[in-house]
């Protein structure tokens, strides 16, 4: 078996099923090195939702992992100095992997690993950035110089789609270094109890006063500017269809404005943040899932994958990666 070490900040609902699947195979021995430290596992404040989030599905089952000590005074994945692991390189060397997969480079320890293990073991890199957002010329030049240096340290880039592929190529990654590894979600979690989920969603719609004959547009996520929920609300109000409903599921800084603008409209509904165990039902509240993002910084929008796993139609802006 080949040994694969993965460096990533903290467990997330999209990666954990993939790590478990890899570990169940017979060709790869996997160990994940989590770099945020113990603070990345519980009571994490999510600025997008504006609240502390603890996921209610298992994210650490079925694969080997290490929680690295993070000595940053302000730990987090939102700035370069937020991830500082003095023992990370030593622990990886002691485990002696055949390959190293790094998720993201904008963290002190991740960047140090890219530099240290360059030309020692093959380095795979995972990131889903794109060139969709417009950037001022000076910033663009600075970014180009930095990223060409970063990606000179990797052997392969695992790109998620054509926009991500174009991004890597723009910063010096050659075609032979690119491997298509698309984003994925745990389809079984959203579809295995389909009939039960549909019945619960139908009951919920009745409680909201929505008839079977009426069509429902659904937004679920962080109510923040880059996802443009106000844009969706304005479009829905212009449509002025009495047989249609719009449901917003989630919390965030835009919620107060959305409530204020729609306060007199009976067919617009708000549901607070729902944890992961409820999401297979939440997506089924709608007939059409809408992600109207305008960015910047919306690199993919994996909620779209989840909505499709629930057999829902999707309406997506061209800024979702």
């Amino acid at each position: 078996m080949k040994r694969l070490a993965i460096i990533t900040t903290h467990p997330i609902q999209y990666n954990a099923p993939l790590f478990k699947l890899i570990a169940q195979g017979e060709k790869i021995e996997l160990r994940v090195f989590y770099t945020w430290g113990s603070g990345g596992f519980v009571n994490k404040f999510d600025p997008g939702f504006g609240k502390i989030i603890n996921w209610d599905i298992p994210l650490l089952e079925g694969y080997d992992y290490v929680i690295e000590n993070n000595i940053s005074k302000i730990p987090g994945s939102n700035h370069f100095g937020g991830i500082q692991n003095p023992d990370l390189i030593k622990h990886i060397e002691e485990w002696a992997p055949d390959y190293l997969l790094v998720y993201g480079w904008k963290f002190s320890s991740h960047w140090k690993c890219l530099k240290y293990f360059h030309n020692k073991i093959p380095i795979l890199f995972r990131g889903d950035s794109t060139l969709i957002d417009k950037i001022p010329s000076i910033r663009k030049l600075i970014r180009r110089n930095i990223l060409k240096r970063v990606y000179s340290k990797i052997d392969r880039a695992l790109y998620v789609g054509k926009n991500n592929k174009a991004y890597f190529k723009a910063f010096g990654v050659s075609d032979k270094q690119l491997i298509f590894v698309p984003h994925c979600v745990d389809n079984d979690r959203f579809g295995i109890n389909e009939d039960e989920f549909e019945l619960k969603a139908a009951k919920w719609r009745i409680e909201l006063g929505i008839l079977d004959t009426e069509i429902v547009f659904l937004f679920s996520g962080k109510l923040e500017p880059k996802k443009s929920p106000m844009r969706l609300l304005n479009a829905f109000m212009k449509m002025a269809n009495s047989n249609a409903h719009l449901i917003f599921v989630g919390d965030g800084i835009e919620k107060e404005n959305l409530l204020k603008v729609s306060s007199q409209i009976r067919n617009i509904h708000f549901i607070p943040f729902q944890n992961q165990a409820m999401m297979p039902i939440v997506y089924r509240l709608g007939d059409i899932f809408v992600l109207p993002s305008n960015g910047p910084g919306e690199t993919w929008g994996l909620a779209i994958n989840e909505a499709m796993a629930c057999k829902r139609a999707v309406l997506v802006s061209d800024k979702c990666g």
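The chain has a mean pLDDT of 93. The two ends are 35 Å apart (CA to CA).
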